[in-house]
Write a structure and sequence with these properties.
70 residues
Length: 70
């Protein structure tokens, strides 16, 4: 099953406002997409691993934990 949230070439609001490098902004936007997928109950196991790696790298593990506990 393909991940419908995988296209990070079109940055959303998070990417435009994170204030970091372009790559960091894309990573933040991708993490936001994965957190939304988690909230919607459609996060795949692969997406979970990706979200965990991004959250750790970006220092956003609290947000991931909160999304998983909903």
């Amino acid at each position: 099953m393909s991940d419908p949230f995988h296209d990070v070439r079109a940055p959303g609001l998070e990417a435009r406002t994170c204030g970091g490098t372009h790559d960091a902004c894309l990573e933040m936007d991708r993490l936001s997409q994965l957190l939304c997928a988690c909230d919607d109950g459609v996060l795949t196991e692969e997406g979970l691993h990706e979200a965990a790696a991004l959250a750790e790298r970006l220092g956003r593990t609290d947000e991931l934990f909160d999304a998983l506990m909903k």
